[in-house]
């Protein structure tokens, strides 16, 4: 029996997430904040099966303070791709400076996550400043993954600038509201020439599965895992949700219909009157 390997695409090619020329088996990216302690951060990250871990440089120590515990003690770069981000930045200048500092701390690594926020209440992306920062960072040799609004035009401009992935929000950061505008998300996916990853708003496993079923290349989350009653169990649930959603997308769902369709075939069915001798023959 010919059974397709779950790590293969329908065309027989390996099903991997490729970002800036590097292939990853996991399509679930996780944050590193809001956990009880560093030990729980590591346990949840391992349960999620994540290979890319994003780090808020302005909030998490990865060497800025030599006298404090470092995240890299529990999530070493030898095991994970550390993705520095600019959480807490509200203008392009601060975002660029933060990522330049991160590159120094991480030994010259260029893969970064850009996010420039519009205000402290909604944490919605400030797109004019985001575009300005993206242009500067790409020119400076960074591989930029970028948090953005779910506007297909803005997403297209970011990929034209040279960003290696676009990361539209599903809903507000930390809201857990799930995907509020699947139609815009699908428009972004259809025109994309770089990976599209949902970033922000995922609340539970079904949200992650829906994102993947729509055709997203991956999902990034933090609060949905760290804010759960049992973060490690939720991390494991998210891992399976992303895998299931990806499998469903590759399998191709059945078309929606406005009429019932019987599960059993109608050809060869028994018709007409069923007489006692027919029943006896069936029972024999």
Describe the structure.
This protein has 284 residues and is an alpha/beta fold. It is 36% helix and 14% strand. The chain has 9 helices and 10 strands. Strands 5-4-3-10-9 form a 5-stranded parallel sheet. It has a 3-stranded parallel sheet with strand order 6-7-8, with helices on one face. The protein has a two-stranded antiparallel sheet with strand order 1-2. Strand 6, helix 3 and strand 7 form a beta-alpha-beta unit. The chain starts with 16 loop residues before the first strand and ends with a helix. The mean pLDDT is 90.
List keywords for this structure.
284 residues, five-stranded parallel β-sheet, three-stranded parallel β-sheet, 9 helices
Instruction: Trace the largest sheet across and list its strands.
Output: 5-4-3-10-9
Q: Residue-averaged pLDDT, rounded?
A: 90
How many beta strands in the DSSP annotation?
10
Residues in helix, %: 25-40%
Helices and strands: which structural class? alpha/beta
Largest sheet, in brief, is: 5 strands, parallel
Residue share in β-strands: 5-15%
Shape: elongated
Q: First CA to last CA: what distance?
A: 34 Å
